[in-house]
Amino acid sequence: MKDKVVALTPARGGSKSIKYKNLVELGGKPLIAWPIQSALEIPEIKEIIVSTENKLIADCAIKYGAKVDWRPEELAGDRSLVIDVIREFWSRYKKQNPDAEIIVLLEATCPFRTKEMIQKCINRLVNENLDSIATFHTADLNPERAWRVSDSGIPEPFIKGAIPWKPRQLLSPAYQLNGAVYCFRPDKLPENAPNILFGKLGAEIIDNHSVIDIDTKKDFIVANALLNS
């Protein structure tokens, strides 16, 4: 493959839900190690970079085989957006690495991705000439079964005309985005795009059992239980 692929994992030090969440152990290793080790299995990925403002996370990332990109403090707050972190990172990285073309974004909070998922996303991005692709899984709640409740407490189907009691087999297929893998060409990212799914899109459908988004202590308990089972 002629396009240089870079793996990027955002991992700031602050977290309101769990202190130093990215360093909490899952399956005997810190959460930040999971995306790094996944990326190490992909031959097309030439560099693995962790974006952080925190020295403890940086030291851990280096220990497991990644390089560190020090992000500005103003992009490390609770309200900082990943899209802004990517733009700032790429504006500097591209100048020093003009042959870089593709970013694979691997969030530490979605640790159960496999190398096959990453490989499929990269291959499809290149072979189908996509601008961006991400992993999706079957929606936990089909929109046809969702409700809205008015201020006066009156429920009605969220989708007008939907029949929430329709048998599962007759529901329209619905999917939700997850954080397992994002793969995209940052040079084509529109200036004011609010996210990293843009242009000619692709969706890689993965099994629901491969997805867990870790945000709370309960999520860590569930994730460790899944590993042990």
Q: How do the strands and helices of this protein lay out in sequence?
A:
Layout: E1 4-10, E2 25-26, E3 29-30, H1 33-40, E4 45-52, H2 55-63, E5 67-70, H3 82-96, E6 100-105, H4 115-127, E7 132-138, E8 147-149, E9 155-157, E10 175-184, E11 201-205, H5 217-228
Parallel strand pairs: 1-4, 1-6, 4-5, 7-11
Antiparallel strand pairs: 2-3, 6-10, 7-10, 8-9
What does this 3D model show about the protein?
By secondary structure, this protein is α/β, with parallel strands linked by helices. It folds into 2 domains: 4-137 and 176-228, Alpha-Beta Complex (Spore Coat Polysaccharide Biosynthesis Protein SpsA, Chain A); 140-173, no CATH class. It has 5 helices and 11 strands, in the order βββαβαβαβαβββββα. It has helices at residues 33-40, 55-63, 82-96, 115-127, 217-228; strands at 4-10, 25-26, 29-30, 45-52, 67-70, 100-105, 132-138, 147-149, 155-157, 175-184, 201-205. The strands form 3 sheets. The chain has a 7-stranded mixed beta sheet with strand order 5-4-1-6-10-7-11, with helices on both faces. The chain has a two-stranded antiparallel sheet with strand order 2-3. Strands 8-9 form a two-stranded antiparallel sheet. The protein is globular, with a radius of gyration of 19 Å. The mean pLDDT is 92.
